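Work Package 4 report. The design task specified in the project plan requires that, given a folded chain encoded as structure tokens, an amino acid be chosen for each position. We show below one input record used in the internal validation round.
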């Protein structure tokens, strides 16, 4: 008789610790110098202004400011282009400069407002209707031979 209970193999009972990857500070939120903005595996997000990349591809803030995400075209070595998300931290001075650029580009795209000056109306001379045009519009009533002879007899 066995003096131990039968047990199955316990091969799949181990699991790795979670890595807690993802965006930690979202767009529009304030970040201080050294804060982790994105934890990632590989370079899914690219570093932009006032950010730096750590050895494990974590993006940190290099200055105090507000986090901003934008899309940018990147070109591969084989000539293909693709979109990537760029993470940047906008400080007070860079935010003002960006707003100024947007305002300038918006003013360039908008055309000068059109003036709504009313031109004096010119009156056209009334057109006289001739008898010929009236006949064309409303055809005359057909008369029979009997009515025609009576009209001429009178």
């Amino acid at each position: 008789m066995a003096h131990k209970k039968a047990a199955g193999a316990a091969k799949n009972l181990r699991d790795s610790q979670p890595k807690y990857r993802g965006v930690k500070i979202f767009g529009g939120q304030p970040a201080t110098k050294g804060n982790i903005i994105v934890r990632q595996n590989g370079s899914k997000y690219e570093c932009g202004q006032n950010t730096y990349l750590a050895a494990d591809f974590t993006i940190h803030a290099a200055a105090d400011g507000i986090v901003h995400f934008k899309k940018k075209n990147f070109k591969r070595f084989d000539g293909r282009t693709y979109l990537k998300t760029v993470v940047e931290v906008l400080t007070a001075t860079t935010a003002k400069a960006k707003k100024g650029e947007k305002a300038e580009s918006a003013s360039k795209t908008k055309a000068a407002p059109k003036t709504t000056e009313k031109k004096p109306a010119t009156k056209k001379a009334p057109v006289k209707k001739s008898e010929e045009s009236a006949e064309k519009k409303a055809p005359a009533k057909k008369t029979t031979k009997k009515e025609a002879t009576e009209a001429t007899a009178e």
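The two ends are 148 Å apart (CA to CA). Validation will be extended to a larger panel in the next phase.
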